[in-house]
Amino acid sequence: MTDRHAQNPQPRLSRVESRAATRQAILKTARHRFALDGFGGTSIDAIAAEAGFSKGAVYSNFENKEQLFIEVVKSYRDDLLASVMPLFKGKPTHAETVDRLAKWADRLANGGKWTFLTLEYARHAGADSKQKEAQTALLRENWLLVGEQLRPMFRDDFPADAEMLGTLVFELAHAPLSGLTTSPTVGALIRLTFSGLLAAYGIAETL
User: Within a 13 Å sphere around the CA of 63, how many CA atoms are in the beta-carbon half?
Assistant: First the structure.
């Protein structure tokens, strides 16, 4: 009997494809290790060993642990945006938008240790670090993208721009103590905050 796999061998990856696959495998492992052990508790050696590559393979793809961490933050940012941006589709009412954000925030609060990890890295990086600047830029991009969806809900005299609104959402959703307590939930804080702001400055909706 002829081996089906022998008849249809898997095509070999090109050098570029192989490098990209190695990079993604390292990133996936690093994301797991950082979330599990924190920035300080994670070593390049541990990441390389778990990913099944040499330490040199890690350094051929990433300059140092700091750059690797920033790339991990980018992957987390992408996942975060993929989860929050669909909430605004379908022209939801103001109440529906607030409810969707509240439920999203509750899921986020129960989803891991990223808030503490981000704070840990900020302390490690220091005020003048290029890595901290890169991390801040990623955060501000999130704030603006979400805030731009929310700002049209408010009148022109509302004393906050899109970035500030987005910042408010993420600061509430990533409240450091939210994962340690059962009440109040971050969803409840989102509902209280935005319901009050809309009552004071919201644009009336037409049916």
Answer: 5
